[in-house]
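Lab notebook page, bench 4
Experiment: in silico fold of construct C2
Operator: M.H.
Input chain length: 333 residues
Purpose: comparison with the prior construct
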Amino acid sequence: MKIKQQTICGENFITLKNSSGLEVVLCEFGAGIYQIKLDDVPMIAGLKDYDSWLHCDAYHGKTIGRIAGRLGKAELHYQGKTYSLSPNEGKNTLHGGVKGFSFQRFSSHLSQEEKGARVDFFLISPDGDQGFPEELRLCVSYFLPENENLLRIEYEATSAKPTPASLTNHIYFNLGAHRNIEKDILYIDADESLHYDAELIPQGYEKTPSFLDFSQGKRIGEDLQNPALAVRGSYGIDHAFHKAKRNWNEPHVILENDEYRMVMTSSYDDVVIYTSNYGPFDKILSNGNQQELHYAIAVEPQYEALDFTRMSVTEKGQHNFIQYEFWKKGERL
């Protein structure tokens, strides 16, 4: 395992590269993923350099929390009480508020193990952080094995008193630095999807309509121009997909093109898919391309929207994982 730590723009970046050619660059800021490469080929579309990545108001590869997704009117209704949260998308709260976990600095611990390398990121979120109740203690762990093309993320959250949390990573995939992801094939293990109001606030689950049905796998661009996907002057997917009691050992999402395949497994029943629908599209990316409509796809496993009972964290802790495997086409089906 090759390991390098650097202080860049005042932040600690940690690079891990295993003998299979998988390279991951992590950062204490947002407990985030700056880059993933397989045999030096980018698997994700981040921003062009470290400074841009650190100072953007988007979520490229960073940890999302306390609660992934949108909460209407910046309010949390939990256990009979209403909490006023930090609004950061009009009057609503998105992905934890103005200074959610994506914009906070974690501490870190790097350890080499017999089978690979692990980086643990730690954060104590105080009672009232962005308006959320109770203190939350969080550990986000990244594990890169020595001889496998996979990256595993583990989330452990604890709280002395119940409080909701739904944690994920907001990584943008573009396997092989293509111009956009419209020709990629997407598979999602789901049979329901979330529907929303005009402000994209969750309204409830329904049987997945055909234009959003990826249960058999299909090209992302096949139905992207369906009128039902026209939102905010653009079009694309920005939806949660749900399947109750998923088999955690089976793929949750598969993304592939003519060159590469990414297989994701997770402990969550939902995954939000976002196809980079909204501009402005003027930034240069870390894979050398310029942002354009559908330049990448965000894959965000998380708890069911507004199900705060499932999200509740207690002294026993909340434990979840997300795992990504990367393959060159032909190496493994």
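Observations: The chain has a mean pLDDT of 95. Residues 2-328 form a domain with the Beta-galactosidase; Chain A, domain 5 fold (CATH 2.70.98.10).
Next step: discuss at group meeting.
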